[in-house]
Amino acid sequence: MATILAISGSPSHPSKTFGILEYAASLLRQENFQVDIVSARDFPAEDLVFGRYDSPSLDPVKAQIEKADGLLIATPIYKAAYTGLLKSFLDLLPQKALYGKAILPIATGGTIAHLLAIDYALKPVLSELGARHLLGGVYAVDKQIQRLENGGVQLDEEIEQRLKHSLRDFVQAITNAQPTSRELAYAK
User: Fold this and answer.
1) At 178, is the pLDDT very low, low, confident or very high (cuts 50, 70, 90)?
2) pTM > 0.70: yes or no
3) Which superfamily does 3-187 belong to?
4) Which of 125, 100, 71 has its CA nearest to residue 186?
5) DSSP for 82-143?
């Protein structure tokens, strides 16, 4: 069974970003994937702010990333960029932590004007961490996501269809993303 790690870069909880990430995880679980969700906001602020690369609090998530076949990385967009919280978290990962992983970025924002933040802000950092199987990403405007009383979300039909299509591409990328032994040797 393929393993997927979903990472939330939202500083607040509950949030529409976390809700869409949970929804995506539930769809993948229905397809018999093991999906774990972690939130960057749950790590000690001191470790994130002071760049404590060797913090024991990060060891479990580093192990989860290493084991994962693919990652969903979700963030709200503030001021045309992903959150500083997510940046602080990503900065603490080893240099090639995402090598050989399929990555699906998911972002939410108040306006369509920040759509390209995935391509121009987030993807370069993910690429620097070794990601080579970066999918196009899903960007949802806040008004396309409604929070429900039970804590879940209701997506507008258009964003739900785009998310499902992107998840199909993500699943396909996972099956095709297994690095060869030569690639693994080169990465070391």
Assistant:
1) low
2) yes
3) Flavodoxin domain (3.40.50.360)
4) 100
5) E-HHHHHHHHTS-TTTTTT-EEEEEEEESSGGGTTHIIIIIHHHHHHTT--EE---EEEEGG
